[in-house]
Amino acid sequence: MSLPVDETSPPGHALRAGLHHLAVETADLDNCVAWYTDFFGGTAAWTLDTFSDLTRDRLPGITRLTEVVAAGTRFHVFTRSAAYARPHPDTLQFQHVCMTAATAGELRRWRDRWQRLYDSGRYVFARPEPPTDIVVDDDGVSSFYAYDVNGLEYEFTHIPAEAEGR
């Protein structure tokens, strides 16, 4: 099934959208930004502490937002004032986000990096659980799951057919 055609586009051209950023709410901005920059190997690009009316309406109580640019992705890590109740820790805001690795070796390095950062003791984890083992399905797709410092679940996967351009 194709996306609706934009009336201003030439016939047969569907609308397309790319991922700009992933927004991550956290109770501890400094801990979260440090973990995202260390784990994903990125940098904190900018920080805001003033917001538009639209942002304040959509995210009541937002106090600070930092963009972390890493692994080809932008993460908008933000925190709200204590006056705004956070969801219960067992309430997930998304089920998981899947990140791709170019090779099976890179996939192993992502898992090893997560474990090294966890073992360092520098971060507080809402769900102090180790990453899963790497599993390989019948099609040769390998993956593992791990939680960020907030308890949000990430899947890391290597799909050989996509890496080969099929």
UniProtKB/TrEMBL annotation:
Superkingdom per UniProt: Bacteria
Domain VOC: from-to ranges: 18-159
PROSITE patterns, per database record: VOC
InterPro entries: Glyas_Bleomycin-R_OHBP_Dase, VOC_core
Gene3D superfamilies: 2,3-Dihydroxybiphenyl 1,2-Dioxygenase, domain 1
UniProt protein name: Catechol 2,3-dioxygenase-like lactoylglutathione lyase family enzyme
